[in-house]
Design brief:
- The chain has 159 residues and is mainly alpha-helical.
- The protein has helices spanning 2-28, 34-56, 65-88, 91-98, 101-111, 119-136, 148-155.
- The longest helix has 27 residues, at 2-28.
């Protein structure tokens, strides 16, 4: 029961802490870029993680520090790609690319977990990519004008 209470407290505390970080960042400066906001939120998250690990008497690195570090670097890369895409493309295009993230689960499950590719998976990927093409490039669906920002946006969806 103790872990259930802790889980409930963390579930309630997380959005409160996120809101507090937003308020604190806005007090620091009114004119802040999205990159600054991302950096400051990351700093707040690191500080909150350090405090939580100290209070709960847990190891900060867990059982596999190398994997945890790789996840952190990967998440940073994905966030940077996403923010760059949002600033360089129209918002609807960036969001369509963002919502392609389930296709990465299919690709990575085949590559990493050596799962068999089923027909249903192939159809799902084809529908997702086809829908993306129709939504992002409706006029150029035949010619497909592609910018580097589209690729960066797709790379940012991997988490």
């Amino acid at each position: 029961m103790k872990s259930a209470n802790l889980g409930l407290a963390l579930a309630i505390g997380s959005p409160l802490a996120f809101s507090a970080s937003n308020i604190g960042i806005r007090f620091i400066t009114e004119h802040i870029t999205i990159f600054d906001l991302l950096f400051l939120r990351g700093c707040f998250g690191v500080a909150a993680t350090l405090v939580a690990a100290r209070v709960l008497k847990k190891s900060l690195w867990g059982k596999n520090g190398a994997a945890l570090s790789l996840i952190g670097v990967s998440a940073f890369f994905a966030a940077a790609c996403l923010v760059t895409t949002i600033t360089m493309l129209p918002l609807y295009q960036a969001l369509v690319l963002l919502y392609l993230f389930p296709t990465w689960a299919i690709f990575l499950s085949i590559l990493i977990n050596k799962e068999k590719a089923r027909l249903r998976d192939a159809l799902t990927v084809a529908l997702a990519l086809g829908g993306c093409i129709l939504l992002v490039w409706p006029d150029e669906a035949a010619g497909l004008t592609f910018q580097k920002w589209h690729l960066i946006g797709f790379m940012g969806t991997k988490n």
